[in-house]
Amino acid sequence: MLDTGADRSFISNELANRLQLQDVDSKRLTISTFGSNMPIVKTCGITVLQMWDANGAPHTFMVTRIDKVTKSLQRNLICLEDKRFLCDNDLQL
Hints:
Layout: E1 9-12, H1 13-18, E2 23-31, E3 40-52, E4 58-66, H2 80-88
Parallel strand pairs: 1-4
Antiparallel strand pairs: 2-3, 3-4
């Protein structure tokens, strides 16, 4: 999960492993999750993620590896009227 306004970005261990990303450092974090009263203290790997934008310019991010970024999200169907609005205004989801 990349958030340009955050002081830390995350990648799931599963995705980091699939991309064969190697840890370059580690960081001990105190993690507070939604619905939990007790924070978890855990040492997490730090890895480098490189991505390219639509113009082909590379961008490098230092990301923290964690077990799970978020649970699966439910997707909703878009009604025909909303689809037309998106198309008419050249918007993409």
